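Box 3.1 A note on notation
Throughout this textbook, protein chains are presented in two layers. The first layer is the amino acid sequence; the second is a token string describing backbone geometry. Keep the layers aligned when reading.
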Amino acid sequence: MGFEDFIMPTIESIKETFSNLDRPKLQLLALSSAGVGGLLCYLAWRTSPKKMTIGDGWWGAGEKRLNEDETVYKFVVKTSEEEIQDLYRRIDQTRYTDPLEDCRFHYGFNSAYLRNVVSYWRHQFDWGKQVQMINQYPHFKTKIEGLDVHFIHVKPAQTPGQKVLSLMMVHGWPGSFFEFYKVLPLLTKTESDVVFEVVCPSIPGYGYSEAPHKQGFNSMAAARIFHKLMERLGFTEYCVQGGDWGSLITSNMAQMKPEVVSGLHLNMITAKTSSVGLLSILVGRYLPFLVGFTKEDVKRLYPFMEKNIYEMLRESGYLHIQATKPDTAGCGLNDSPVGLAAYILEKFSSWTDLQNRDLEDGGLERKFSLDDLLTNVMIYWTTCSIIPSMRFYKENLKRRIVDSVNNVIVPTGLAAFPNELVHCPKTWASSQFRDIRSYSYMPRGGHFAAFEKPHLLAQDIIQFVEKVESKRRQ
């Protein structure tokens, strides 16, 4: 009996034995098993059916209601003097620890510069004025799967001859819908043949969207809810765009209902790495053309260990905390506005450009205004959403998400910003995204593209959609 004669019946037997286990559980069993048994379980997992399950959910408090109110109602962001005075009281009681000499941002948010930020927050930042600015766009809420889902809905200023396309844009952590405020006017009023009607939801548990009351709310659940939101608004076809968690959620949306997603645009690119991908890492620096790398790929990828392993280890401590014990760390952040600001704004420093760690002020005000940064912090503070937003990591990382199993077949546009935390060459991305219409090496910018480089992001979205529309007309 040959190896194949032995192995395939054995795999089929294992698959039948574990037929009641879903793929993530089978994968976990394979990874936790040793020797030949673990190998056989792994092979069974790899060869098991890769099915997309859409399903349904209920994330509200208590039992699922038979009938859900599907009313879409207007929502207005408000504040009060009591809210502001409580913030001031907590800020005034903050205790600081002096930074180490010449540590800059290498130990996290430099507490000397933090005092400057907090002083501005306490004495110059006008939350009431910022609330008025937030309300410049129409806000709404609607109940989906037991949760009040918040979103802004901005209709375009259409000119004769322009085609109006629907677009959903999804934020990530530690951002919010507010990240898109600078890119919205560039998409809803264009000189292109296309213009956009934009919907920007808040992920449940973030900002003004209600937090899930039950365990298990991951990117697939968010994708399903956002599809339901678009359907409720009357859209039958739309583009989706995202970065950070938004890139995973929108990718899941494209996988879930490719018949309604006319295009997917991402400004954070991730793809599963195969054995061929691992080989390309070894070969790509010296013979890039053999593995499909460009000179720009080589520049952004290497030295590989430093840029992709060591740097990620330096920057991903938060991820391990939030993927394991989010509520513990979140207690302090939810109680201290200054602690919350330090935790969030440190990410806007290093994720915009890792070289900002070498600066005493983290380079924050080089790319952003304190008003914009503190407005994002205030959205987390006033809604007590830091803990539920952190839980999203635990819910997503405790099981394999379907995007690593199923390919994306809808037309895809990828914007690779040079200061993104990781770089994904087009040749790697094509293993996951099977219809890449546009892959752009962006000249400047980092992780928070819509916030930092709105003009560049808007231009890339428009040129991608124009390519999609042009091919559809052929």
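The two ends are 55 Å apart (CA to CA). The mean pLDDT is 89.
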